[in-house]
Amino acid sequence: MGIRxxxxxxxxxxxxxxxxxxxxxxxxxxxxxxLAGLSVPLxxxxxxxxxxxxxxxxxxxxxxxxxxNRVWIREALEELGCPVGxxxxxxxxxxxxxxxxxxLRIPEETISVLRGLRKYKLGLVSNFTHPDVIFSCLxxxxxxxxxxxxVISGSIGWRKPHRRIFEHLLRLLDxxxxxxxxxxxxxxxxxDGAKAVGMKAVLIRGSSLTEGDYYGIDPAEEPKFEPDxxxxxxxxxxxxxxxxxx
Length: 246
Description:
It is a single chain. By secondary structure, the chain is an alpha/beta fold. The protein has two domains: 5-17 and 105-242, 3-Layer(aba) Sandwich (Rossmann fold); 21-102, DNA polymerase, domain 1. It has eleven helices and six strands. The protein has helices spanning 21-35, 42-63, 69-79, 86-103, 108-115, 131-140, 153-156, 163-173, 187-196, 211-215, 237-242, and strands at 5-8, 121-126, 149-152, 180-184, 200-204, 229-231. Strands 3-2-1-4-5-6 form a six-stranded parallel β-sheet. Helix 1 (21-35) crosses helix 2 (42-63). The longest helix has 22 residues, at 42-63.
């Protein structure tokens, strides 16, 4: 069975990011002070925000269900006596992600590789609570149209490595699992998730700082599957494809 489609992870695979979570929390704090009258010291807000974020990260890791940032932002603010409506909450979420979005980059090499894959169906699968960040980045670089489907956990409610997010990708691409080559940088979220549903998988070695690194609660389990291929950068993908019969 030949490869008819290639699917990619986003952060760490297609895009790089430099902003850290501290910058996002500081931006959120400034916006909450302006929009919701938050008056506690920054360090107190950071402590409570971290507590709520860890609470929901544990739930997400255990259940593989996606929970949007707005849930723990709202909960933290309510506990501090600053309830917010939906419109203000939306602005707060955007404020949190502002440094993140400003630091997102898609290397020219990656864009060139993607443009050279026109003979394949292309998909994108991302664990991201706030889909607008992904779409904005793709639009900014003019490559949204390269993808036949874009699957984001914040839109469908399931996170990698749960099989449902990968099965959703397969339905949208209308291909069999064995006809998909999946490319990602995380051995559990990407490789285990893709291999569990029958896809071939390519691991890009090396990864930027993750939310799990920051909160110190990455999944404890070891990867269950070995990748079919390992590469050092996305530029090596062409060599892998040359070895696979189309």
